[in-house]
């Protein structure tokens, strides 16, 4: 069953072209997922503090059909899809005046914090009727590029404004991080992105960002100072007319 939440888009979520940033779009989606969770059983804080569990985002693909702007009235829908093994599948849709503006498909893990163990989908304390997954005009999988085949785009230190309760960079910050390392981004609009999270980026660490061209868009590899691969990503943009 789909869960829906209504929002009025805030001006501070927009960029210099007055379009809502991709990080803000992901924030609206994840806030709605949090409200859905609360309607089922617990808030995110209660999930951690009472049950010792935490949802970890493994991967997400987002396609943005049209820009969002300040003061837009939107309805954000989220629903769970059939899940197996250690993967919890969840989709999202943002509607404006009933029209689909953005969609996303994501995969999560549910971590038993004390035992450092991922719970299988059939062990989840949350029960919701699954719906069909959304189909996005993006590659099914991220094409792997070797670091040596990419250019070094720069470094990014993880600071106070990045981190959440876990002490790691919040995953909603990654889309804007990719934009920060995209040439001519001020003249372009993000229309799609894919993120694969492999390792947390901790407070105080410095990440090195590698970038490479592909037929689908810009590919990124984000690596910690010790060489640990944190994130792989694809960013698809188009020129603003």
Q: Identify low-pLDDT runs.
A: none
- Tally of helical runs: 3
Radius of gyration: 18 Å
What general outline do the C-alpha atoms trace? Answer: globular
Strand fraction equals 35-45%
Report on the biggest sheet: 11 strands, antiparallel
Q: How many runs of DSSP E, i.e. beta strands?
A: 11
Give the topology string: H per helix, E per strand: EHHEEEEEEHEEEE
Helical content, roughly? 10-25%
N-to-C CA distance: 38 Å
Mean pLDDT: 93
Helix vs. strand class: mainly beta
Structure overview:
By secondary structure, the protein is mainly beta. A hairpin with a 4-residue loop joins strand 10 and strand 11. Strands 1, 2, 3, 4, 5, 6, 7, 8, 9, 10 and 11 form an eleven-stranded antiparallel sheet that branches. Helices cover 14% and strands 39% of the residues. The longest helix is centred in the first third of the chain and has 19 residues, at 22-40.
